[in-house]
Amino acid sequence: MQSKSLVVIGAAALALPLACSGSPPDEGAGNGGSGRGSGGDPGEGLRFVPEGLSSTDMDEDGAGLELVAFTLVQGAAGPELYAAVRNDGETPSCDAGLMFYFIDKADQLVTTWGGSLLSGRLYRLDDGSGVMIPCIAPGEIAMTGSADLPGELVIEELGYLKHRFPAFTVDVVPVDAVTVSEVKTVGRGAGSAYTGTLENRLDVAVSDPKITVFPVNRAGRPLGMATSSAAADIPPGGIWTFETTTVGDVGAGHVAYPTVSVPP
């Protein structure tokens, strides 16, 4: 049996200033801005929550990546973190991740967390091997998140954060692989889920599809994360129809990224 590699190959489902186009957010939307939207929500226009909690890039160049938004909140089951990263470099950043270091007010490391960045782009290595890897295109936004941060993390006791971007740069060629369309928000009990369709545009079958949807505020800050997955094969030209788990806040829009297994 051939092994399969996991790749993220989605695209944003809704264009927003920061979350999809890569253009700068509003001047008043970052740390220190008022962040108040028309609905009176004090976090509606913020790019960083908690407001005033800073994070410093530990890498000298960060592989061209820039942390442009994050949400760190106390959820029902514990601390939750959602982040958005933009590639400000001139080349794709491949197999990229984001690692946070949480430092308390006594300047002591409390814990760390790391996750893969969902890029929305699939590239083929330009070496004749045919291997495909996820990369973040220049100017594009990637996201990551977790609703299962270490329990010893107490948000109110944090002094600041540090972060770094594990990633590499290699010669690659973009591939038109998988697309997501018809993403809609549907009410489910006290929350909202997302429905939509994933289409396989490769000339080989893919399997184990997964979709991750981030609701975002008007500045493009991810507010939460909804997912759906299936143990299924999708033939060339085939589709997978999904419905995700629920989120409590649908924000001003959403960004969707699919993940599938592709044979080498």
How many E-type strands?
A: 20
Let me know the average pLDDT. Answer: 84
Order of helices and strands: EEEEEEEEEEEEEEEEEEEE
Helical proportion, percent range: under 10%
Secondary-structure class: mainly beta
CA radius of gyration is 18 Å
Indicate the proportion of strand residues: over 45%
Query: Any low-confidence stretches, pLDDT <50, length ≥5?
Result: 1-41
Q: Report the total helices.
A: 0
Euclidean distance between termini CA atoms: 12 Å
Task: From the 3D structure, determine the CATH topology of the largest domain.
Answer: Immunoglobulin-like
Q: Mind telling me which CATH architecture of the largest domain this is?
A: Sandwich
> How many discrete domains?
2
- Give the overall form: globular
Major sheet size, sense and barrel closure: 5 strands, antiparallel
**CATH hierarchy class name of the largest domain:** Mainly Beta
Task: Label this structure with key terms.
globular, five-stranded antiparallel β-sheet, about 260 residues, FxLYD_dom, 2 domains, Immunoglobulin-like, about 0% helix, single chain, four-stranded mixed β-sheet, Exported protein
Overview of the molecule:
The protein is mostly beta strands and 264 residues long. The chain has two domains: 48-173, Immunoglobulin-like (Sandwich), CATH 2.60.40; 176-261, Immunoglobulin-like (Sandwich), CATH 2.60.40. The chain is built from no helices and 20 strands. Strands 1, 16, 17, 18 and 20 form a five-stranded antiparallel sheet that branches. A hairpin with a 4-residue loop joins strand 7 and strand 8. The relative contact order is 0.23.
